[in-house]
């Protein structure tokens, strides 16, 4: 009997869809920005949002900033993988760039909140779900205070939401600690997760 089909050289190499999530302020953007700087071979899908752009954010890089009318059109035409209203603003993940990247064999990462991750889990359970965890609620509170200065910002609400979100960690495959001054460690852990997933004997199959 030939064992050629079982050779590691013949194992299928399928692209991964990585879903990166965690509480607001935990450092998701910083981690992805660092991975881009390192030119890691990972396609980062940009979320669309109706919220106003913050100082230092770049349109089509950090987010696609669009109107509420345009967002509703995308929902109507089934252009979003998932969407949600978060603190009064709409956020959504476009389908097309994810499909294009996966079809071309490119590993792809999407950044969503916990609600979005739960929605994607129902649609694409074979994705790799990573939860970015703050070292403590106190540290998260400090980050949120430093990041927000708008009048509508409600720190108590966001901390309460974060505590509830952390309770949903069982939805995820992996947890990565996000230290504010040690982004490189979180990036290294995520790269290690991807490396391990690439070594699976039975690869994940993503059908979008």
Considering the chains and any ligands shown, give keywords for the structure:
globular, 208 residues, alpha/beta, 7 helices, Rossmann fold, 9 strands, 19% strand
Question: What features would you describe in this structure?
Answer:
The chain has helices at residues 28-37, 68-76, 95-103, 114-123, 137-147, 155-166, 183-198, and strands at residues 17-21, 43-45, 48-49, 64-65, 80-86, 89-94, 108-111, 128-133, 174-177. The chain is of the alpha/beta class and 208 residues long. A hairpin with a 2-residue loop joins strand 5 and strand 6. Helix 1 (28-37) packs across helix 7 (183-198). The radius of gyration is 18 Å and the shape is globular. The N and C termini lie far apart (36 Å).
SSE blueprint and pairings:
Blueprint: E1 17-21, H1 28-37, E2 43-45, E3 48-49, E4 64-65, H2 68-76, E5 80-86, E6 89-94, H3 95-103, E7 108-111, H4 114-123, E8 128-133, H5 137-147, H6 155-166, E9 174-177, H7 183-198
Parallel strand pairs: 1-7, 1-8, 2-7, 3-4, 8-9
Antiparallel strand pairs: 3-6, 5-6
Helix pairs in contact: 1-7, 5-6
Summarize the entry for a quick read.
The protein has helices at residues 28-37, 68-76, 95-103, 114-123, 137-147, 155-166, 183-198, and strands at residues 17-21, 43-45, 48-49, 64-65, 80-86, 89-94, 108-111, 128-133, 174-177.
Total separate domains = 1
CATH architecture: 3-Layer(aba) Sandwich
Report the major sheet: 5 strands, parallel
Rg result: 18 Å
CA-CA gap between termini: 36 Å
Give unreliable regions as ranges: 1-7
The overall strand count is 9
Q: Indicate the structural class.
A: alpha/beta
Strand order of the largest sheet: 2-7-1-8-9
Mean pLDDT: 88
Order of helices and strands: EHEEEHEEHEHEHHEH
CATH class, named Alpha Beta
- Helix coverage percent: 25-40%
- As for the CATH topology, it is Rossmann fold
The CATH homologous superfamily is termed P-loop containing nucleotide triphosphate hydrolases
Sheet-strand content, in percent, reads: 15-25%
